Amino acid sequence: MALTGQVSTLQKSNLGARASSDCWLNSGAQPLYSPDKKLILAVNGEIYNHKELRARYEGKYEFQTDSDCEVILALYQDMGADLLEELNGIFAFVLYDEEKDTYLVGRDHIGIIPLYQGLDEHGNIYVASEMKALVPVCKTVSEFPPGCYLEKGAIAPTRYYIRDWNEYAAVQGNSTSKEELTEALEAAVKRQLMTDVPYGVLLSGGLDSSITSAVAKRFAAMRVEDDDKSEAWWPQLHSFAIGLEGAPDLKAAREVADQIGTVHHEMTYTIQEGLDAIRDVIYHIETYDVTTIRASTPMFLMGRKIKAMGIKMVLSGEGLMRSSVATYTSTKRQTHKNSTKKQYVNYWH
């Protein structure tokens, strides 16, 4: 596994990071250090509430970079492993406390960011964001569980996030508010637009990606990072779609892009190009699952072109579709079809 940035050799540990400044121009090289150099952090992810957390520690912690993830160091210095309760974001990290000769490994609530763990023949623990980094040295490799953390000396990861909504009995009395759902969705999209680099949206023309793209377009003109006080550095929102020649998704995506006003990029590929990419796709997604490979292949081809265009970050509608299952079911009724169409118009205008 290629490595860029720095490698920190510690008393009994090593931290290395291969990272790019995906969202911030002055995010600093990794690993990140506390001012006294005694806390060292290697992290993959984004902390969406970093502005609020930075404000909390103003005058108490001297931040070294503009990285949104540096708040993890400030939080750890203040509250140890309890810091995980304060984070709103997606992340996987390893933090080493040189003064106490201890470490903390943490992963986000539902496992958006990948993290794997392994043991070598001597019982030493390794963690990495890709399995392929562990295979050469570990006898056993497994997924590090989402919503958990691991401290030095612990036998197994400790769960800090418990899903209290898995069973129907836990939510059957909940009321549904269209206004609250809309507000939560818009807030979720907006906080992911806190970035200093060009970004875009993946648009298939389906309900999930169309709504996400429409919401992103609403906030694209102003700079979210400074609370909409200045114009965005890249005010034009770019949308991307891929498919075989004549695919209905391409037509649907084009119609949505025209409606919401994105700069749309349509990409086509051939079956042979898809077949040629499979080896690379499997290498990167680290699975032989047929369904996952089939879905990932066009995304891989499109991702290469998006990167070549200088777009550093894209939003997709994944996740929204799961929360909209009831909507899909209800659209079989004509009355709901009409109200759904009206809601689209409200988003687009």
TrEMBL record:
This is asparagine synthase (glutamine-hydrolyzing). It catalyses: L-aspartate + L-glutamine + ATP + H2O = L-asparagine + L-glutamate + AMP + diphosphate + H(+). GO terms for molecular function: asparagine synthase (glutamine-hydrolyzing) activity; ATP binding. The lineage of its organism: Bacteria, Pseudomonadati, Pseudomonadota, Gammaproteobacteria, Vibrionales. Its EC number is 6.3.5.4. Keywords: Amino-acid biosynthesis, Asparagine biosynthesis, ATP-binding, Glutamine amidotransferase, Ligase, Nucleotide-binding. SUPFAM superfamilies: Adenine nucleotide alpha hydrolases-like (SSF52402), N-terminal nucleophile aminohydrolases (Ntn hydrolases) (SSF56235). Pathway: Amino-acid biosynthesis. InterPro entries: Asn_synth_AEB, Asn_synthase, Asn_Synthetase, AsnB_N, GATase_2_dom, Ntn_hydrolases_N, Rossmann-like_a/b/a_fold.
